[in-house]
Amino acid sequence: MCVIHPNIERCLSHLSAFAELLGWHDLVPHHHDADGSDVVWYTCGTNEGVETDFFLQINESPSGKTNDFVGAVYALKHNLWTGWHRFPCPDTDATLRDAIARIDDWLNRKWFTDDQLRLRFSHQHPECMGFDWKRIRECRPLHEP
């Protein structure tokens, strides 16, 4: 039986509002026990471990703490992965605005759904190009949390 992590309920509403402002909908919490430590992350989009995956992932950073998070977009159908980008817990209007200001250029869904914006993103962030699941697993993550 899976025990619900106590931080999930507290964080889900804040992170869902954050994701919505970035164009991502239906954020889903995930939780598992890794060697006695709770690991919590949130996703929205299509994440099936295949080359057509397109999703936002948000992790507690460090795991078990809810003051800071990191987020990344996996747009593998376009061979894009943004790497991890840190932002504060968006639990007030001020921290929500700050988090959006920091992250919008990296994680906004519009960058990956519009052909012209995706081309602009790839020119602005060439380090995010050429990714598939194999390369993501083999490389040291960009902008590591």
Describe the structure.
The protein is of the alpha+beta class and 145 residues long. Helix content is 35%, strand content 26%. It has five helices and six strands; from the N terminus they run αββββββαααα. The longest helix is centred in the first third of the chain and has 16 residues, at 6-21. The mean pLDDT is 85.
Number of helical regions:
5
Kindly estimate the percentage of residues that lie in beta strands according to DSSP: 25-35%
**Largest sheet geometry:** 6 strands, antiparallel
How widely separated are the two ends? 30 Å
Task: Work out the number of β strands.
Answer: 6
Portion in helices:
25-40%
Helix/strand order, N-terminal first = HEEEEEEHHHH
What value does the average pLDDT take? 85
Tell me the overall shape. globular
List the uncertain runs. none
User: Strand pairing plus helix content: what structural class?
Assistant: alpha+beta
Radius of gyration: 15 Å
In short:
This protein has 145 residues and is an alpha+beta fold. It has helices spanning 6-21, 93-107, 110-113, 115-124, 133-138, and strands at residues 28-34, 37-46, 54-60, 68-75, 80-81, 85-88.
Annotation keywords:
145 residues, 5 helices, globular, 6-stranded antiparallel β-sheet, single chain, alpha+beta, 6 strands
